[in-house]
Q: What sequence folds into this?
């Protein structure tokens, strides 16, 4: 606990807890829409924003938010077109984003390899009070949007046509999802890095799905797992001197494995504890009934 006597460790812990809560709250919608890897793509675009910030001597977090949001809106517009060239356009956007980021970081006057690494893999201990304020403000905005608009967002993620017929502003909600994804990716780059942020969005949700059935319960359990992985990851990384972002993701994956094995074992024990009796088997209706 001596580590938390330092202000930078307290800021690191608070930032990690915010991301651990916000990322799964958004990720549950992305998993529902089968867009689990969209965070990786937006992360590539956000790297260009980081390069712009370093080149112009501005806050990389702010410029990354702006550039990533613009890229996310472009991704959503391409997805809505549904054209055969959509995948190619997305690939060009993603690869152009990471290439542009590397080039702009290299052009910045104070360019070092550490500048690039800390955004690719996270650098919690360098979180400044200004960075923490931005992370807290944007994280709170994303979390409120995900919770308040949950019924509408769930409807859009489940069936866009039904949501449109019901009168929901589908295009606006889709763009909101794109922008909040960009914001979450950007603020999480300090915690787990742009290359690992998608894991923190998806893995807690996948773990929660092993023990829950409803959408609301999955969202709640995923947020709890994200919080637990973030808090324990920061502590463990300080104890064994490992990268906080990678440690957080490893613990989230460990939670997924543990819940998967536990849920599978529980279902097997229930089947063995309540075997089917002849009467119960006979009472089950046949799959097909033929009438002569």
A:
């Amino acid at each position: 606990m001596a580590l938390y006597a330092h202000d930078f460790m307290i800021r690191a812990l608070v930032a990690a807890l915010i991301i651990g809560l916000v990322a799964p709250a958004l990720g549950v919608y992305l998993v529902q829409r089968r867009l689990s890897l969209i965070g990786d793509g937006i992360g590539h675009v956000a790297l260009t924003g980081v390069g712009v910030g370093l080149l112009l001597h501005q806050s990389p977090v702010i410029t990354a938010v702006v550039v990533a949001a613009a890229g996310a809106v472009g991704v959503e517009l391409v997805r809505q077109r549904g054209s055969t060239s959509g995948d190619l356009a997305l690939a060009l956007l993603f690869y152009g984003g990471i290439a542009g980021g590397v080039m702009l970081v290299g052009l910045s006057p104070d360019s070092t390899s550490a500048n690039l690494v800390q955004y690719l893999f996270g650098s919690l201990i360098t979180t400044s009070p200004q960075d923490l304020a931005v992370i807290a403000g944007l994280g709170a905005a994303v979390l409120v949007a995900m919770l308040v608009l949950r019924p509408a967002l769930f409807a859009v993620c489940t069936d866009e046509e039904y949501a449109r017929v019901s009168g929901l502003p589908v295009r606006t909600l889709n763009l909101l999802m794109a922008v909040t994804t960009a914001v979450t990716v950007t603020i999480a780059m300090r915690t787990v890095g742009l290359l690992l942020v998608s894991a923190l969005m998806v893995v807690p949700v996948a773990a929660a799905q092993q023990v829950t059935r409803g959408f609301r319960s999955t969202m709640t359990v995923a947020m709890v797992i994200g919080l637990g992985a973030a808090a324990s990851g920061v502590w463990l990384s300080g104890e064994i001197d490992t990268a906080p972002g990678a440690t957080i993701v490893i613990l989230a994956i460990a939670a997924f494995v543990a819940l998967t094995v536990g849920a599978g074992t529980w279902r097997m024990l229930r089947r063995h504890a309540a075997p089917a009796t002849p009467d119960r088997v006979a009472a089950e209706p046949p799959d097909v009934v033929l009438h002569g």
